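Trying the structure run again after the queue cleared.
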Amino acid sequence: MRDVFKKFLFSRHILVNEAGATDGEWMETLVALAHFFGIEITEGAGLAQPQMIRLAQDMLGEDVPEPFYRGFPATVRGLTPELLLFDQLAHYLRTYGLGDFSRPGHSLLEFNPDMSGRELISALFAELNGDAETAARLLRPGPQARKALNEPGVRREFIIVTEEAALARLRESVNSLLQSTRPLSASQMELVSAFVRDCRFTPEACACKQTAIELMLDTMDPDFARFLSLPDVIDLADAMARRSELLPPKRYAEREPGVRALNLPNRYRRLLKQVIDGKFLEGAVRERDCYARQALWCALLHHIHYKPVNEAAEAFVRGIRSGVNRSPESEFEALLEREGPVAAAKALRRAQGSGAVLRRLDYLLSRCRDADGAPREDQLEGVFSCIETENALLLIQLLIRYATKQRGVSRVFRFIRGNRLQTHIETDEEAARRRTALPGETHERVIRLLKDNLGRVLCGRLGRVYIDPDMRRIALPLRESASMGGVGVLPGGSRLPLDLSKTVRGFTWWEQVDDIDLSLIGLDGQGRQTEFSWRTMSRRAAGDRSAVLFSGDQTAGYDGGSEYFDVDIAAFRQAYPDVRFLVFCDNIYSNAAFDSCFCMAGCMTRRDVDSGEVFEPKTVETAFRITGAGRFAYLFGIDLEKNELVWLNLLQGADAAVAGETSLAFLLDYMAITSVYNVYDFFKMMAREVVDDPADADVVVSDRPFSLPEGTEVIRSADQEKLIAFMNGGPL
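Done. Tokens:
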């Protein structure tokens, strides 16, 4: 079975017996899984196989490279700011000063901070000359012995299933993911594509055009065009151009200097012709919607030398090349100007459905005013009458957007392109030109209408449901395409309670790149930032290190490196009372992207931070690999007021090489998601009856282990594909 399948199932606490035999080592395997990783097998213990240990090592980490301060955190606490600064400058002199990234860098002082000035200079020159033996002798007394880990770590309940049962579970998960009307994350797309190709799986449905496009290009099978419409062909061509690292049709259409034509490979040109011909032969063509990107269509038809397959195609080509704009968007704008917002909203609903009205709701409502600028109640009611929809996912997204929007402050525009989050903060000039600001009363009415509509759509879809109160902390997977998959990964905005008796250890480790930086940024309630990083560490008072401590900036070359932050939440609140949230970030300082190297990130919780190794797989709460064509990722946050970890897991689109130099204020919206709407609210709306006893339920929504009657549907916080299916009108 392919690794992508086994890793996905591992993240759902499922191990797979591939050969049907245990090689007689099943008991040893069970002991190793429990001892090193805290994995307890609750079902199928006799199916354990030794290779499961290797999988657990890959997913949770093992033999992680040493950080800059090898005795972290015990040996770092006693170093003065001056010694920290010396270590930093000496390290950078060898690496970025002399360009020597041939080996991992380590502190000259942590094990012998009282060395003489002569010894210090000698050790520095030995380090610069690569004389490890001399440096080690001068750094006496050497690394301190660490106590054995004296805490139980994280308890993980797993089951082991046969390969046949595993494939059945994978099929169910893939079908659920294909019901998503939103693009999938890179890890989800990898799973779906591998299952389609390796298992010869033919999807019966695919709700997202981007998913269909990716599957078509992975398989070069034109049959996936049945999930597309003619206007989607431009998106297909853009995806082809990105894969070919060529210019997309948009740039060709703009006639940029030096651009003569696209140069798509012939196999892509043939596929495009097949798709376009197929749409006209089917006779179901949304021609008017193509005019919204008329220039791009002209460029594409010219590039592939398209010859119409029938009279309908001939008429379409003539219309596209005529230069006359017949797009629904231009008709909408003309009608809005001529007859007002109500007429425009009704026409838009007839042409494209209520979802199109909802996406332009601010624009329409802001025009429901009289000559003096006062809201017109009759027009507001007319527009409101056009917004009812059966699309639960869209309603939830809009509800969260309106409920977290802070009126009177600069807006943040967020969108995802190429599995990376793009953000734009409204400038003062843009705010002054803004024409879509809504009065407070109108804003509140929109929220009430969205909730009423959502309740109507979801009401009674399920029978008797038990919902764990802890599910109020779990967010719904609304836009997860910029996120990564792994152990313990939850939808963005989800929260996990933190034990104040434990320290949170955020970590990252990598290979095949010189320098990745782990940073910690503090945010107050208004988004003002305080940076905690290697470059600010030596400026912090020694007493602050009881609250937050960093392992040092490791620049390790291809040998690999690791970095850690320890945060004592109770101590941190006392030291920095103005900081409300902490955000862990990863960025590649070297000129590379995450998809060109190996990088893992996550967090541990440690009761005794000086026991065990710096990296202890048994204490890992979550671990995921950062992937994608970006250099900056938001990992997770800590709500210092509520003592909760907040999931972010976002790959940023900006080409940022240093943390703290761009605004993180937009992340405050993610901190508020579950207070607006969460998994508990979602299933409560769908339940005909919410029961107190899980044994009485048809559906149980909980992460707790229960002894349940056969046939009971169980939804856990990690079952994102099931939540996606439910939001998109899935299993009833």
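Residues 252-260 have pLDDT under 50 and may be disordered. Worth checking whether this holds up in the mutant runs.
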